[in-house]
Amino acid sequence: MSWLASAGTSGWSWLGALVGAVVGVGLLLVIVGLPVSRRPGLTERLEPYLRDTPRPSRLLNRTESVSVAGVARLVRPLLTDLARVVERLLGGAASVRRRLLRAGMPPDVERFRAEQVVWGAVGALAGVVLGVLAMLFRGASALPVVLLVVCFAGAGIVGRDLWLTRAANQRERRMLAEFPTIAELLALAVSAGEGAIGALDRVCRLSRGELSSELGACLADARAGANLPTARQGLADRTGLTSLSRFVDGIVVAVERGTPLADVLRAQAQDVRESGRRAVMEEGGRKEIGMMIPVVFLILPVTVLFAIYPGVAFLRLAV
How would you label 103-113 residue by residue, b for 16+ Cβ within 10 Å and e otherwise? Predict the structure, then answer.
């Protein structure tokens, strides 16, 4: 008996007990989840007939206590207050709205200010990390770290503004690159017998790009009840391109006065190509001036040194 007791004691295993408990709990859950064990009661059977809408599936219900939407609702008031502070400090809401339209974004200044706050927070976090590292490894004091955090936060806020300007300029450059082709397509459609609105509709359906999207918005404004000059003014406000404004002005004038529209469109396309060629030549001239800096300050001194050094060395030997 003592041998059996010692054998039973030595055969005990906590791992085996844990596995057995897990298996038991799993079997219990399976039994509870069987259809026989979860028969609907009277309330569940009558509820579909007493409600106006069908009961949604429980698989679609979100049971998380903390979700991204909840965190966003908690953070939104703080972002709104900080965005108002940034707006009071920086100002320029009209300029921001105009650049948002030029970049093809909704003209929501508050949302943009909130994005600036987020960029500033990211910059401040980077400044905190660098400041902590400087304090640990360099023994920096607290004041330079605070100044570093403030500078990084300001750099984040200003960087978002510069990024918006860059996005607006890039979009306008893409529109200028698409403009001659769109103008030629419009001229071809008008030459085939289409009217101004019909040609715009056809080109917007057949082409893809930033300019075709803007023309589609202009066409939508015209179909919504606005006259063509009003739709043109909306297009000019959204883009800010002088050539595109002249292009739409030419279309309006040709429609009102009965001028041959195809010739006007071809002339506009040729003007845009000439302006693009001039812009490329001006950019090349600026690059040429910029290339003079390394030539004058790097290459030319080295060349003069190589030319003078042998004579100077010979004079030293002669002396």
Answer: bbbeeebeebb
Give the gyration radius of the chain's Cα atoms: 36
User: Would you say the pTM of this structure is higher than 0.85?
Assistant: no
Tell me the two tokens of residue 227: 């006259």
Three-state SS for 66?
coil
Token pair of 216 as six digits: 């589609």
Q: Is a pLDDT exceeding 60 seen at residue 204?
A: yes
Using the structure block, give the residue that is written with the tokens 């300050």: 297
In contact, 96 and 157? CB cutoff 8 Å? no
Are 264 and 250 in contact, with CB atoms under 8 Å apart? yes
Are residues 40 and 55 in contact, defined by beta-carbon separation less than 8 angstroms?
no
Q: Is 152 exposed, middle or buried (0-12, 13-18, 19+ CB in 10 A)?
A: buried
Q: Which residues contact 118 (CB under 8 A, 6 or more apart)?
A: 79
Measured over the CA atoms of residue 84, residue 85, residue 91 and residue 95, the dihedral's sign is negative
Using one digit for the tens of pLDDT, what is the confidence trace for 266-312? 777 777 778 778 878 888 888 877 788 888 888 888 888 888 878 77
Measure the CA dihedral 271/273/278/280, to 10°.
160
The answer to whether 213 and 101 are in contact (CB under 8 A) is no
